[in-house]
Amino acid sequence: MPIALLLLLIAYLLGSVSGSLLLGKFRGVDIRTVGSGNAGGTNALRTQGLKFALGTVLIDVGKGALAAWLAWRFLPPAASPAWLYACVLAAAAGHVWPVFHGFRGGKGAATLVGGLAVAWPQTLLPIFGIWLLSMMWGGYVGLSTVLAGVSVLMFALATGASGLQLGFAACIALLLVFTHRGNLARLRAGTEPYSERFRVLGRLFSRIGR
Hints:
Number of helices: 11
Shape: globular
Mean pLDDT: 90
Radius of gyration: 17 Å
Low-confidence stretches: none
Structural class: mainly alpha
Number of strands: 0
Helix content: over 70%
Strand content: under 5%
Oligomer: single chain
């Protein structure tokens, strides 16, 4: 299907438009040279401030949503589910390996959230719920994001999703585990930074346990 392949390419190219790197050009900074070196929202917040980070997240979520919407809009209903999910993954791949930025981008979470908002919106509640609960317990952004990705697969299994949806969910979980492998390695080594401000539940249970 030529139109499907074209949309797949467009999804990848959209994903390759990195929010932090695009905004960084206006500020004269390559975010990959500061902080953790990652071109994502967390590093943007830590090194460039809230407004820059919000702009980054809006662009990265928006391109995932746009890639999914284009697939939903221009493909026939019988063909759209598989290609719809493929376009979401292609946009995420573009974010992680952007052709416009030397194939060195972010970790894909925000772009996947944007794609899921169009392709499978029912997953957004468990994603945000697990992410928030994990952040409030441990304060680890990377771990929370990985658990949120895995929650998509758990949601698919719990709701009796189709084989296609299970495969899509598994791809999301595997991609986020892969892109956050450095965070997981630092977590095992005890060197992963965390946000004490978010550790509301962790601090509460620590006090109760004393």
